[in-house]
Design a protein that fits this description.
Chains A, B, C, D: Its cofactor is [4Fe-4S] cluster; Mg(2+). Chains A, B, C, D: Catalyzes the formation of phosphoribosylamine from phosphoribosylpyrophosphate (PRPP) and glutamine. Chains A, B, C, D: Pfam families: GATase_7, Pribosyltran. Chains A, B, C, D: It catalyses: 5-phospho-beta-D-ribosylamine + L-glutamate + diphosphate = 5-phospho-alpha-D-ribose 1-diphosphate + L-glutamine + H2O. 4 copies of one chain form a homotetramer. With 494 residues, the first copy, chain A, is an alpha+beta fold. The first copy, chain A, folds into 2 domains: 265 residues, 4-Layer Sandwich (Glutamine Phosphoribosylpyrophosphate, subunit 1, domain 1); 189 residues, Rossmann fold. A 7-stranded antiparallel sheet of chain A has the order 3-2-4-1-10-9-11. Chain A has a 6-stranded antiparallel sheet with strand order 5-6-7-8-12-13, covered by helices on one side. In chain A, strand 7 and strand 8 form a beta hairpin. The radius of gyration of chain A is 23 Å and the shape is globular. Chains in contact: A-B, A-C, B-D, C-D. At the A-B interface, helix 2, helix 3, helix 8, helix 10 and helix 11 of A face helix 2, helix 3, helix 8, helix 10 and helix 11 of B.
């Protein structure tokens, strides 16, 4: 894949911004969300709905955005627009107007490889035997490199480095009818993914056989909307209908929607990190509200590892709910001990090394008046490499905290993800090679506790009878729902 | 002529954005912050420090930004750059590099008249007898129109419609030495303001005689920084020193800083709305932390007007602290019942009337899973016209709230501000012509309570012996610290 | 193909500009040049040389530009950048720096279908079995639609609507070695084209079997450069070596250049319109300088159709040389009777219909002082639909010309081009359905003459023994060098 | 305050471009034009007319453009927009629509100091006692520094470094009525200038007492247009009426136009370089067409200094007319021996020193096929420092010219201009310290001749009885029409 990193992409290249953007989070070693998809079927102004829907999914991908529409009132014509930047930057009234139609698929993404300049903005658009084909995906195809190799050997040429492209080639190569071809293509691929596939005639919606990546269905009158997260439904005035099921393939065309399957559910395995970190607190996954799940994680954490302190604070934004839960459970007041500048974004200039050493902060500050002279419980969602945690603990200490007790709302993150989350190699994951006490020392905390596996599972809740309540906990317990090996491609297909 | 060659002209006008931006908040009738100023003295990379400092003050003004520098290492040359947009949009590495120097004044602003296209971006830059002159201000000069008229009659010409310009003319017109001229000019003007004035040789820092607008001083080694709010100090690694006092005039030049006065303190009157709504929660004003003051307001509100309910929620972002205080006091759990999309900004396309009617939300949504079937206490900071409150109550009801009890963390807002806050005319302020019960009906709430004047004053605290603890409460109690009348110019000078 | 016209491309979309640009020439019905290609082999700073080379070819395509490089000093890595706009708009120091390498291919193009928004900017970039593949072309593949259909039926998917893409697929599909595959692919396609094909290892340069489109080779020391026109060589300091021959295939790699053929020359047929209109006057094609050929056309025209007049004027820019030739031959003084505003470009706002009726001109004006009261000979290169000629004759009459005699430096343009020039359908070509006298009336001229076929051929000169001296005259005499039919695809592949 | 709300701020700063643009002509030491002005009175869509008018004057200033309008249908409101870049870059449909009104003044300018980043874009806009005031000027005020000093000493503050600003201050400072104030202000200033001054009520048009800078009046129906050059009239469909006379002051308001004088004509002195180099060939100055005057210069030069040669060529664009005149007179054929790339502009990247040494040309190339083996007469308009001439002679020699005979269509340029043309100091003007023979050697020519003073004067023609036919020849004969001294400010006021 390294050959491609130097490829320069041209798509709506917002030159300086793009360059400055690289590494904007590099001093914080957070996991990075992989992508968000949004689909519309049988609704006027589909592109406008997608604009607001994708805007609600913006936290799942800030690097690029794209919308592709089909206009059934006008010969089922395709139109699309993609660009680098936020939804509000990529789209304007002019280009949304051009995107006429009543069906659409849209996408927001991160460039998973931070050092890559390649803009594989989605939806990917192809022209094949039967007309136009667009694909938007969230997740990763574990066996994409093998399939790609095989396709290339038989003469296929690729326009992107995105693994998503293999699904289009598999469909185009098949001599069977489109639905069969799509079904067989889905059966060939292994991984965790949510797919929206659109042709001039049909919209296909599919979730991987374990339901690793979230995908929900909503209704507006006679029309359907599909979204990575339900938070988009409230934004656009849609009514939540149900989660798309593992192995399900929905086919929507002039005859309406048919609910089919391309795979049996083997073992349901929704990504645990969606509950812990990625999803917006106002989203529900499998019927469970994220904010409330996080509050329960905070309460559970308080039960498992109480510590006497003066204040509880959460690392914004993802850990606020859990911190409030912790505070409610313990009676220790929740305070705003850390604050994040909401204006920091892609184009923000990072402080020079010199200024950073002098104390210039980019994005997160401790609130001196709040933490000075206080014993602080600091709630965070996870520890990846440990550098961010150390940094935040030190921010609190520099602002006068007398003790800093770190409480993590998930079990130790030990194993890389192969299903669409951008994680470092195993050897960089601090929990894979350090004990909790060693980590505590390294992040300079007075005490450190992680949530237990069982405590986490219970906090999320849900009525799945399995021990893990239908979640993938591979990053904690190394039990991957599909075959993977250390050499498998981890980079997100989207 | 060579002195001027480094002057940077305006202005990075991001045209389309600006137009689209108008009215981005029009469905929410919030008060609008007036401006923020930031000054640096005797510190290398002054423009970079200003960049991070202004970034921390961004909430005080999102429409334009500007920085002017003096380079004492290079003939005390002036350089400046201003532009429309956020700090991160206006400045880039290239223009910051050009802004060489160890002194600077910077500014962020709102265009107070939403319909105005006029870009009075500050700092304003002038060339007068003694060289270059730059002015950045936060606040309003009540008697600017009269002074301006008088200056124009004697032949002055103005480059902007900004009232701030009068201070420069008053100084230029004086036949006295610069410091005397500045002092006399400050004595001529009436209002609420924080001024940073810079010439090739000197930096002047002044606060109005009542200290209406906040202004704090910090230190980095031998250098000084000045800021509308202390939150910027934590960001840039500065140590808070003290608040600039009412009527104070600080003069900084090659001889260091001299602390002088141009007016006696008559009555201290810090703007109450800074505590309630404008200032960032991690700022301290007069030594009082904003987050903690807001939590106390929430607690006080709970004491004054308890209501039995299932959850407490705050209108983001300003009312979160108070909502947590209310929850802590009452034991009713704080929940995330309302969520704001943090990506919505100036360039965001508002939904068409049609889409809005269909339920498309621009920025704020209720979280169905959290509020459905619940009796909700909704904490907000103020009610201006009442339209926003109605809208939010309805969002909660549509999401299934069975009862909505509105609690406001300030007394009723009845009187317009003449000191730099963009308020509607008195006749549009709902509290000026409606009883609390009438307002309750109009905003469709099950119950409504405002914080009492005394409760508010006590919540803020502080050790000022006055009944109002040194705050201006004119918007609540009509007791203005300076002469004003209904015809006085309300539009902010900055 | 119409399905695709609504497809929206995203490449460096300079939104407003692009829209305004459409139809910028719509009131002038000139033929539109199709594209220009530029290649560099074994020279440091290949991308910079391409920048200046493409700049010299800018007249061949103003809509988009692109450069792809291979860096043999760094693992033969690919890098590329493409964008909408002029060369100077698409490239800057930053992106040229990123385009490291000693080999490159570059491209400038028109969007041939004026109404199309599709940005098939070249070089096209693919990833296939053996690595990266880039293609830049000038011309048209007459049988591309059939080949494309065939490829799609066997499962190929296309990323663009450009016919150029078929060459990449033909190569990728072949099981033979790359050179054989490329040779066989070239043998499959029919049309007029100049190809630059680059892989990580090799650069291929090919001209169609009739040499319809110009392509020249030059040297700088040990390196090679290839260009659509020789004018680029003077610009970059290269020495002209020779024209690439019809049916020739040059292969350049680590072993240097091998000169091979993939087709025998059947009949040489260089595009006549290159001499008449497209090529820059300082270029030489087949050893013949364009300016001098045009002067000879003017002289020949004077011999064939002298008319007594006061001044000779040429329609800028293409007809100036011929007008001077005409003036020299007749002794009638050449004057600047028409002037073109050189600043008019893509982003220029066309006058409204109302302003146009009031006399506002966009681009071309008559010079009243020069033409008033004069009998004018107006030299132009061709008449396509006739609307432009009518317009210019009227400009001269409105400026006071008493007589306007139109002299055209080419035979009547009667037949559409299938080899890369954007021509209307036959039924829109005025000369295909009108006599010379009818055209004269329609364009409101006092007299009208075209250059004879033989006169044109003699003017160009050259030592090819054929009656047409090795030119394609199909647009005049309907004698196409390859099989074509009225349904063949005329739209340029590049 | 509402009057001002429509004012548009500056604007559309094409930052990077501006920086790259600096020095784009630095290898060619041509004189630089100073500015162009365009005014409209009593015509609907005044801003659109200005757009096309300024576009026609673009050659007089490529760095910035601005338009200010007054709408007499809407309370005589002011609106303006200015920006860096070409007219087509600064203005778009949106901002032209905002510039409503039936009166306007517009401006295009060079930044005369190439190293200056200061954007004194005009029209300058002021607000003074009686309302709004806008000023656009072409030329230079010799005594501006003294007046400015005096104004600053009495308390005026300046917003720009432009000398033009003094006229506004002089008017604002006067206690007399506006017309008297303007007249007295014009009487105070010394120099060469064309002024357009607009208030809410009036439009003033003035030329300096010697008519140094050109300014013409035209009509469209009941409306008036004013322009630096008449070429703009043909573009917008206006009829030329007359040249504005030296010392004339036209006052246009609701009562129509009054023709007054503020100064007697002492000695008419139109800038000779307008005829020779600056004006567009399709313009007429004092009734003399520029193209025809230049042809006569070429013919006269042929009479004065014939040389036997094979071809005549002109340095594009300004010397083409003269070269054709020379060719007609001598019978030596005119050929395209030098060609300029018309796409080179502000944003063009100059070749690195290394590439330049290798022969990469930026803008101008010799046409090898045309000049090879030929004795060439090269016609140019002037020699400033001599470096450009040397460069062009060498281009021709490198392309194979056997002899290069340089013929200059003006007398030797020996003395700096104080009236708005950007000239180097006297000591850098080659003709001020070298004999013709020395210059010949320095520019490597086989022969060199300048046009004689009398020959030049006769070529221009005109019916003024004076020896110089009413031209300023100071740059040739050191006879300045106003007092100046070596220390006078040469930098253009506009």
């Amino acid at each position: 894949m390294s050959d491609e990193q130097i490829r320069q992409e041209p798509l709506l290249w917002t030159g300086d911004h793009y360059n400055e953007g690289i590494g904007r989070d590099d001093i914080f070693d957070k996991l990075r969300e992989e992508c968000g998809v949004f689909g519309v079927f049988n609704l006027p102004e589909a592109s406008n709905l997608s604009y607001y829907g994708l805007h609600a999914l913006q936290h799942r991908g800030e690097e690029s955005a794209g919308i592709c529409t089909v206009d059934t009132k006008n010969g089922n014509k395709f139109a699309y627009h993609r660009g680098m930047g936020l939804v509000k930057e990529v789209f304007n009234k002019d280009n949304l107007d051009i995107l006429a139609g009543d069906r659409s698929i849209g996408h927001v993404r991160y460039s998973t490889a931070g050092e890559s300049k390649l803009a594989n903005a989605q939806p990917l658009i192809f022209r094949y035997r039967d007309g136009d084909l667009a694909v938007a995906t969230n997740g990763n195809i574990v066996n994409a490199p093998e399939i790609r190799k095989e396709l290339e050997m038989s003469g296929s040429i690729f326009q992107t480095s995105s693994d998503t492209e293999v699904i289009a080639h598999l469909i185009a190569r098949s001599s069977k009818d489109f639905e069969t071809a799509a079904k067989e293509a889905l059966q060939r691929i292994v991984g965790g993914f949510a797919f929206l596939i659109m042709t001039n005639d049909k919209l296909l919606v599919a979730s991987d056989p374990h339901g690793l990546r979230p995908l929900v269905m909503g209704r507006i009158g006679d029309g359907y909307v599909f979204s990575s997260e339900s938070c988009a439904f409230e934004t656009i005035g849609a009514v939540y209908e149900r989660d798309v099921q593992p192995g399900e393939l929905l086919i929507l065309d002039a005859d309406g929607m048919r609910e089919t399957r391309y795979a049996e559910v083997e073992r349901r395995a929704t990504c645990a990190m969606e509950y812990i970190y990625f999803a917006r607190p106002d989203s529900d996954i499998n019927g469970i509200n994220i904010h409330m799940a996080r509050k329960r994680m905070g309460r559970q954490l308080a039960s498992e590892s109480f510590v006497d302190a003066d204040i509880v604070t959460g690392v914004p934004d993802s850990s606020i709910s859990a911190a409030i839960g912790y505070a409610e459970q313990t009676g220790i007041p929740y305070e705003l001990g850390l604050i994040k500048n909401k204006y920091t974004g892609r184009t923000f200039i990072q402080p020079s090394q010199e200024l950073r050493e002098k104390g210039v902060k980019m994005k997160l500050s401790a609130v001196r008046k709040v933490v000075e002279g206080k014993r602080v419980v600091m709630i965070d969602d996870s520890i990846v490499r440990g550098t961010t945690s150390l940094r935040i603990v030190n921010l609190l200490r520099e602002a006068g905290a007398t003790e800093v007790h770190v409480r993590i709302t998930s079990p130790p993150f030990k194993n890389p993800c192969y299903y669409g989350i951008d994680t470092p190699d195993r050897k960089e994951l601090i929990a894979s090679y350090r004990t909790v006490e060693e980590i505590r020392k390294q992040i300079n905390a007075d005490s450190l506790s992680f949530l237990s596996d069982q405590g986490f599972v219970d906090s999320v809740g849900g009525n799945d009878g399995a021990y893990n309540r239908g979640m993938c906990l591979a990053c904690f317990d190394n039990d991957y729902p599909t075959p993977v090996n250390e050499e498998s491609d981890k980079s997100c297909s989207c």
